[in-house]
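Try this one yourself first.
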C-alpha cells in the first residue's frame, strides 16, 4: 500500500565521503547497504532485514565548494510533484532544485520553506519511501525547529493539507502535524533554546534500543554527541552527528508510532 499524500516517508543523508558514511551508519544501526551502479548518480540504500529504511548520497565537489553542509533531509510524499512545486512557490518557498525524474524510482524537488528550513518532496514511482518505520533502528519522527512557528504551520497546512495540534511538551509548546488522524512530525520554537547562528532545520529521529549505547557507539565510530542522552516525556533522547557533521537524533522508547505502519 502506498504512503498517503503528505506523509514524511523518507530521509537521506548527504556526506562528502560515502565510504565513511557507510561504515558509520552500518556500524551504528546494523544496516546493510546497496549502492546504485550509476556512477553519474550514485546512491546508497540503507536496509534493515532486507527492507529499505533510509538513503545516502555524496556531496559533490561543487556543493562542498559552495558551502553546503552534510545534512539529513526528510522527504514528503506527494501525489503530484509539479503541482506541489508550483504551490510551494506561491506560498513563499525558495526552490533549491527544480523537479527532476530519477529513472523509474520517482521524481523530486528540494525547497527552503518560508522559515528557512530545507526539505525534499517526492512523488513515488518504483520507490515509495521507507518500507518500515517505528521499529528499532528505523526512522520514527521528524521535527522542524524554527523561529516562527505560525509561519511554518501556515505554510505546511496550506501546501499539504496537514492538520496541526498544539500541545504542552515539558513546559514548552509543541505543534504536532497531522495527516488525517495520524501524527506526522512537528514544529517547535528554537528562539530561546538554540544560538541565533543555527538556522531553521528539520531533524530526523531514529528509534534505538539504548540512547546511551548509541551515543557511546557514535563516538567510537568517529561521530560526536551534540546533546547527551537525557530523560524526556517521550523517552531517553540524544542528538548526534556522523563523522562528517550531519546531525540526527535518537530516541529510546517503548512506544513508537510517529511514522505510518507499513
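Now uncover the answer:
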Amino acid at each position: 500500500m502506498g504512503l498517503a499524500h503528505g506523509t514524511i516517508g523518507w530521509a537521506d543523508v548527504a556526506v562528502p565521503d560515502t565510504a565513511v558514511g557507510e561504515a558509520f551508519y552500518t556500524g551504528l544501526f546494523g544496516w546493510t547497504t546497496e549502492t546504485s551502479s550509476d556512477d553519474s548518480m550514485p546512491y546508497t540504500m540503507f536496509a534493515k532485514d532486507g527492507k529499505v529504511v533510509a538513503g545516502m548520497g555524496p556531496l559533490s565537489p561543487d556543493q562542498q565548494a559552495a558551502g553546503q553542509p552534510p545534512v539529513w533531509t526528510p522527504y514528503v510524499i506527494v501525489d503530484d510533484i509539479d503541482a506541489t512545486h508550483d504551490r510551494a512557490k506561491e506560498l513563499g518557498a525558495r526552490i533549491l532544485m527544480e523537479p527532476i525524474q530519477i529513472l523509474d524510482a520517482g521524481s523530486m524537488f528540494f525547497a527552503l520553506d518560508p522559515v528557512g528550513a530545507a526539505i525534499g518532496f517526492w512523488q513515488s514511482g518504483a520507490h515509495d519511501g521507507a518500507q518500515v518505520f517505528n521499529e528499532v533502528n528505523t526512522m520514527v519522527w521528524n521535527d522542524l525547529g524554527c523561529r516562527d512557528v505560525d509561519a511554518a504551520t501556515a505554510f505546511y497546512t496550506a501546501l499539504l493539507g496537514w492538520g496541526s495540534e498544539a500541545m504542552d511538551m515539558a513546559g514548552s509548546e509543541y505543534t504536532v502535524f497531522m495527516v488525517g488522524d495520524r501524527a506526522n512530525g512537528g514544529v517547535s520554537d528554537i528562539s530561546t533554546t538554540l544560538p541565533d547562528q543555527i538556522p531553521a532545520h528539520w531533524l530526523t529521529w531514529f528509534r534505538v534500543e539504548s540512547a546511551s549505547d548509541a551515543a557511546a557507539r557514535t563516538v567510537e565510530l568517529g561521530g560526536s554527541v551534540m546533546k547527551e542522552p537525557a530523560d524526556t516525556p517521550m523517552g531517553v533522547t540524544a542528538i548526534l552527528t556522523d563523522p562528517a557533521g550531519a546531525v540526527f537524533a535518537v530516541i529510546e522508547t517503548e512506544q513508537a508510532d510517529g511514522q505510518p505502519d507499513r
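Discussion: The chain has a mean pLDDT of 93. The CA atoms of residues 137 and 207 lie 5 Å apart.
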